[in-house]
Amino acid sequence: MSFDLIMAQLFAGVALGAVFVLLSTGLSVIFGMLGVVNFAHGAFFMVGAYAGVFILALTGNFWIALAAVPLLVGAMGLAVERFLVRPLYGRGSDYPLLLTFGLGYVLVEVVRILFGSDGMPFETPELLTGGIDIEGLGYFQTYRLFVIGMTGLLMLCLWLLLERTRYGLIIRAASRDPEIVAVLGVDVRRVFLLVFGLGTGLAALAGLLAAPMRTVNPEMGVTVLIEAFVVTVIGGMGSLLGGAIAGMLVGIVVSLTALFMPEMSTISMFALMALVLLVRPYGLFGRGVLAR
Amino acid sequence: MIRDIAPVQIAPTRIDWPMLAQRWRVPLLAVGLAALPWIVPSQALAVNILIFGLYATGFNLLFGFTGMLSFGHAAFFGAGAYGTGIALARFGIGWFGAIGTGIAVASALALLIGALSIRSRGIYFSMVTLALAQLIYYIALQATGWTGGENGLRGLTVLTLHIGPLTLNFLDPTVKYYVILAFVVAALWAVSRLLNAPFGAAIEAIRENEGRAAACGYDVKRIKLVAFVLSGSICGLAGALNALHLSIVPIDSLSYQTSGLAVIMVLLGGAGTFFGPFIGAAIFLLIEDVFSLWTVHWQLFAGMVFILAVLFLPHGVWGTLVSWRKGREP
Question: What number of C-beta contacts closer than 8 Å exist between A and B?
C-alpha cells in the first residue's frame, strides 16, 4: 500500500466529510432550534442536486446554480415550515418527525415524475476540473479542494452569524428558551421559520456540491440522510463543533475502509457509531439532556 | 355511628360497547380477520393485511404502548424472514421449526440492537435504530452466500404442511390464509395477555412518564429492553410468515421503507390501540392496491396520506373513533 494512495484516499475522505458536515449542520441547526428531527433533510439534499441539474441546463453556468439552489430550496423550506411543521409545535417531537418522513416520500416521487427514475450525470464545472500535483504528497482534485474550501467558508460564516451578530444572539437565546425570548418582544415564529429555511438551504447546497462526486438520482437522499444521522449521533445532536468533527471523522473512516477493506466500507460508519454509543450515549460532544 | 347503607344499585345501564370490545378484543379481531378474504377485493391483499397488521402490532407494542419510536423494525421483520428462509432452504428444517428459527433470530437481533439503542432516548433513539437497521441491511446485502444478496433468498417453497395426522396443501390460497391466521391469532392473544398483565401497565407508565416510572421502583431500562425484544420477536414472526407466503425473501424486507411501513400503519390506525395496527395496515394496503393500479407513482399518495394523517388524524382512525365516543359520553 503506497503512501500516495493512502493520501489520496484520505483526501477523498475529507471531501466526503465536508458534505457530511454541511448536511449534519443543517440537521443540527433545525433540531437545536425547533426540536424537529427533519427526516426530509435527505430529500432536500436530493432536490438541491436536481435543482442544480435544472438550473445548469437552463443557464449553463455552475456559479449561478451555486447561488440560486440554496435560495430556491431554502424558500421551499420556508413554505414547509410555515404550512406543515408550524401546526405541530407543542405536540411532541414525534409528529414533526413523522410528517417530514412523509414529506420525503412526496419529494422523491415528485422528482421521479419530473426527471425520471434513472440517474443523471453531473459534469464537474470546467473551471474546477483537473487537479494539483504536490510532489511527495499526491494528487489533489481541484473540485474536491473547492468543496472542502466552500464548506470551511460556510462554517466560518455560520459561526460568525451565530456567535457574533445580533441575529445569532436571538437564535441562540431562542434555542435555549423560546418562551422567554418571545416575552422579550422577539417574533420567535419568524426565527423558527428562517432557521428552517437556513437548514434546508444548507442541505440543498450540500446536494449540489456532492452532485459531481456521485451520480444524481432520486434515491440519493435516502442513504445520505442515514449517513447524516450517523454523523449527528456520533458528534452529538445540537453541537456544531461535534457535527463538524464527526463529519470529517466519518468521511475519513469510510474512505480508508474502502481502501483497506472494501467489503466493509458500507458498514464501517455504523460500527463507528455503535462504538461511540457504547462509550458516550449522547455522542462525542452531545449534552446529556435532550428532554424536548 | 351506623348509617343505613343503601343497597348497591346494579342499574340496568346501557351496554358499554367499547368495554365489551376491549374484553373480547382477540376473538373479535380473529373473527374480523377470518372474514377478511370476503371483504377486501383480493385474497392476496387479505394475506398482506394479515401479515403487515401483525408486523404493525409488534411495532405498536414499542411505539404505541412503550412510547419508543423505532425506525429500524425492518431489521426484525427481515431477520424473521431470513431466519425462516435460511432454515428452510439451506438447512432443510421443517416449516414449523423454520418459523421458530426465524423468531429466535429476530429476538436475538432485537436483544442486540435493543441493548445498544435504549441507551439513548427520544429522537436519538429513532436515529440510532434507523442506523443500526441500515447496518443489518448492508450486511445482508454483502452476505450473498447466505441471503442471496440483491436477488433475495429463493428456493424455500413449502408445498405441504404436516400437522400431526393432517396434511395441508399450502399452495391452496385459502389453506395458506387460515394457517397464517392461526399464527397471527396466537400472537395477538399473547400480545393481549401481555398488555393486561402488570407488564402492560409498566410499559404504559414508562410511556407516560419515564422518570416517574423509575421513581415508582420500576427498572425502566430492563422493561424497555424486554418490550423491545418482545416487539422484535412479533415482527420476526410476521417476517417469517411473509417468507412462507412469498416463497422468497426479498432484500427489501430489511430496507428502511419496511421500517417506515410499520410507522405509517400504526400512525394511520391509531398508536397505542389494539385494533389500530390492523386498521392502519388495511387502509394503507388498500390505498396502495387502488393507486398502484392507476400510477407507478403511488408512493406520492402514500407520502401525502402520511402528511395528512399527522396533521389531521394524530390519533389515527381507530384512536379518533374511540376518543370521539368517549367525548360523547356524559
Answer: 117
